[in-house]
Each structure stands twice: as C-alpha cells, then as structure tokens.
Amino acid sequence: MRAIFFRNQGLLTKLLLAGLVAVLCGCGREGGAQADKPAKPLVFVSVVPQRCFVERIGGDRVQVRVMVEAGHSPHTYEPTPRQMAELAKASTFFAVGVPFEVAWLKVLKEANPGLRIVDTREGIPLRDIDGAQEPQGHGEGEEHAEAPEHHHHHHHEGMKDPHIWLSPRLVRVQARTIAAELSRLRPQHRDEFAANLAAFEADLERVDAQIRTILQPLKQRQFMVFHPSWGYFADDYGLKQIPVEVSGREPSAKELSRLIEMAKDRNVRVLFVQRQFSSQSARAIAEAIGGRVLPLDPLAPEYLDNLLTIAQAIAGADQ
Fold first, then answer.
1. Distance (Å, whole) CA 31 – CA 45
2. Which of 22, 32, 125, 176 has the least CB density, counted as fewest CB within 10 Å?
3. Cα 166 to Cα 232: distance, rounded to the nearest angstrom
4. Would you place residue 197 in the very low, low, confident or very high pLDDT band (cuts 50, 70, 90)?
C-alpha cells in the first residue's frame, strides 16, 4: 500500500479539520481553547509504544493520548476530528518521525499555536531505511518506470528510518528527552520524573541483556520481513533484515521471483509480517520455499514484553 499524502483529497481533509477545530475551539485566539488546558498536562504521542515511555516517566502526573490508534498504520493515518479537538487542549506533541507527521505536524501546529512539538529523535543518529535488494539492471523495465511522485513520503532509498522505538538503547535517549519536557511542564515533580526515568532505564537495560542472551546463539543472522521496521533492532543485535517490499510497494513478479531465490539461497524459512500491511507477497514467498509466515508487531502496547516476544520469534525462526 502506498502512502500518498499531498493529494487534493488529503489536503482538503486537512483544511476542513483545521477549520473545524478553529471554529469549535477558538484555536490560536486569546481566551480560546488554550485557556481551557486541563490541570494535568495533556500530551500527545504518535504511536502506541511511545505512550508506554511517557507513562513510565510521567506516571499519573500527565495525560497521554496516542495519535495513531491501534490497528492503524503510521504511514497513512489521518487525525480524527475528535483528536484535532483534543489537541487544542494539549501542551506537547512528542514526535518520532513516522510518515504521517510529515504531512500533518505543520497543520496541527498552525491550528494550535500553543502546542509544543518535541522531536524525540534529538541526539539519535538516524540510519537510512533498508530497501529490498534490487536485481542487476534495476531501473530498466516497466516495473520500475513509475514517476517519483507515486512514492511520496513512503520508504525509498536514502529515507531515514523512523522506527527508533524498536531499539532499547535508543529508547533511553528518547526517554531522557521526554523526562526533560515533562520536568519543564511540571517542575514541581522533577525529582519524581527523574526517579521514574532511572527505573525505566534500568528495565530497558535488563531487557536489552535478555535479548542479547536470546539472540546470541543464532547461526542464521538474517531474517525476512515484508516491511522494513526492524533496522535499529537488527543493528543492535548483529542481525540483518531482508525486506520484501520495494520502495513501499508490493514486489513485481520479477522481484518476487528473485526474493524466492534469495530466501532459498539463504535458507530462510520464516517471513515476518505486521498487521498494518498486506501479507500477500510474504505468503507467496513462504509457499514457494515451504516456509511459514509469522506476525511481529512493532506497535504493540506492552513495549518491554513485546521486545522479548520479537527476539524469541526471530530465535525460533533459526530452529
């Protein structure tokens, strides 16, 4: 599925939502929605795992709302009118770099001038997102003749990988950024936030060590996925993901054939998919190699437990 944000329909939706919120909430006007901020700071995050990070640090001192709700894709999401109305009362939006932010953050900020956008990627070296390994002669043929605008704001060569929440090491950096912002919002609870941050960092270190133990014996250090969400995770643990999708789209018949041969050559027997994307191509490859398709969810709410589930699934694919 392609994520195409700057089309007329999408632009119309943004303008209508922004206008609706401005009318209903008085966004950007003195005495409007900014005067009605709740006693506890209301903060927004982009994806579900970030809610865990904010709640671990902020406890019951803050209210957290998730923009991309469970079951939706951060590549194609559009905020609802309810969310736009709630944003009028929010203090902070913790951005993480997912594609929907490219299309929407400017709109959200213009509709809510008092909203502070905090980029949790601050201080994190970003990697290029992995693309499918192209066959020789890529670019010569009809299957690659699409115009560049067909891939707006989706994965392509050179795009930075937004999935920084899948590395416990990098989540420690994000957690410190979150703690600093919450301390700014509620300085009277700074010590409490610092203690919560220390406890969260200790849990991240513990889970990181468990993952290393789980993955250390692996002989097959490559794993095949439909969508390349796992680059930072793979980097941390000496693994390599092989993505099935090509520049954010389903592979052509020629590319699918090449991926099947690659899977056979590398003795890949398990393909991992996530529910936010189609699994049709992955299932075709699995059928051709006599393998299995298994789900991995990069957006699961139980963050630390989910990291261990991911590690165990990858380790199990080596059996």
1. 26
2. 125
3. 6
4. very high
